[in-house]
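Weekly structure sync, notes
Attendees: PL (lead), two postdocs, one rotation student
Agenda item 3: pending single-chain targets
PL asked that the sequence for the first pending target be pasted directly into the notes so everyone works from the same version. It is reproduced below exactly as submitted, 140 residues in total.
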Amino acid sequence: MDSLIKRYSYTITRNDFVTAGKSSSDIKGNLKAIGIDAKTIRKIAIISYEAEMNIVIHSMGGKLHCDIYEEKIVIVCEDEGPGIPDIDKAMTEGFSTAPENVRELGFGAGMGLPNIKRYSDEFKISSSDNGTIIVVTVLI
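Predicted structure, written out during the meeting:
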């Protein structure tokens, strides 16, 4: 079993577009500082940004964790409600439930979950009306 080397944890606030993206930027800087290769950093940056924005836009808030192991990086996103009613539909490129005011800010194009899955080596998602949990693994 892999032992955890380092965990970075962030609290993400609903509708906070002022600090949105800060957590994923911090993760990117931390990975760079510990010598993770550029290709892996790019994948993690995309995954963590999309996950962070989904929490900001679609949930009541949540947590984002970046766990670093010797051979992999695991991103865990846990948000509080309302959940995703149809995960298959939400995984379709271009499908979005983002409100108009969010779209006017340039977000909500319906690429969040598809991009998270695209850049991960392992992708798991579960959702209920209590919230959504996404666990993504990227091999180093």
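Discussion points:
- The CA atoms of residues 9 and 65 lie 4 Å apart.
- The beta strands are 6-12, 62-68, 72-79, 122-128, 131-139.
Action: rotation student to compare against the earlier draft before next sync.
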